[in-house]
Amino acid sequence: MPSRRQLHFAAAAFCGALIAIALYLQYAMDLNPCYLCIVQRVFVIATGLVLLVAGLHDPGIVGQRVYGGLGALSALLGGSFSTRQLWLQNLPADQVPACGPPTEYLFDALPFADALGLLLRGDGNCAEIQWSLFGISIPGWTLMAFAGLFAFCVWQALRRG
């Protein structure tokens, strides 16, 4: 069985691979991320950083529980944004919210708190399915990744030795 440290590094590398895939989809396949996509990326990065620090630190059992809890919380929050986007994608066409302005404009034109609120809520752009694999859209795959990361972090926090 690999050590906790090795598993943390592997999970952090998984998060890095998720970001690499997101960047490939954005730049090589020309799929522009919506607001909720960007927020999900932030939580993938946050979860990956927690796992990377846990691997570098290699703490005792109390530290493992702290890192496991932080990683699980980050994955849970990220999964909630994936769920929100999946909900938007499955709304009837007449109930989809209007599309908003680009992210850059939001932060230039609005106070930070207002722009952040709009970013976290999502809009009509988030309801568009730009790509899918086996009938599952990007936020569906991201939700599965967050579920796996959440389970991993909880397992790491609760396991002995």
State the main characteristics.
mainly alpha, two-stranded antiparallel ribbon, Bromodomain-like, 161 residues, 7 helices
Tell me what you see in this structure.
The chain has helices spanning 4-27, 35-57, 61-89, 103-109, 112-121, 124-127, 138-158; strands spanning 132-133, 136-137. By secondary structure, the protein is mostly helical. The protein has a single domain (4-158), classed as Up-down Bundle (Bromodomain-like), CATH 1.20.1550.10. Strands 1-2 form a two-stranded antiparallel ribbon. The longest helix has 29 residues, at 61-89. The protein is elongated.
CATH class, named Mainly Alpha
SSE order: HHHHHHEEH
Q: What value does the Rg take, in angstroms? A: 17 Å
Main sheet attributes: strand count, strand direction, barrel closure: 2 strands, antiparallel
Shape: elongated
> What's the total number of strands?
2
Helix content: over 70%
Q: What's the CATH topology name?
A: Bromodomain-like
Named at the architecture level, the CATH assignment is Up-down Bundle
Distance between the termini: 12 Å
Q: Which class do the helix and strand fractions yield?
A: mainly alpha
How many discrete structural domains? 1
* CATH homologous superfamily caption: DsbB-like
Q: What's the helix count?
A: 7
Describe the protein's topology.
Layout: H1 4-27, H2 35-57, H3 61-89, H4 103-109, H5 112-121, H6 124-127, E1 132-133, E2 136-137, H7 138-158
Antiparallel strand pairs: 1-2
What's this entry about, in short?
The protein has helices spanning 4-27, 35-57, 61-89, 103-109, 112-121, 124-127, 138-158; strands at 132-133, 136-137. The chain is an all-alpha fold. It has a single domain (4-158), classed as Bromodomain-like (Up-down Bundle), CATH 1.20.1550.
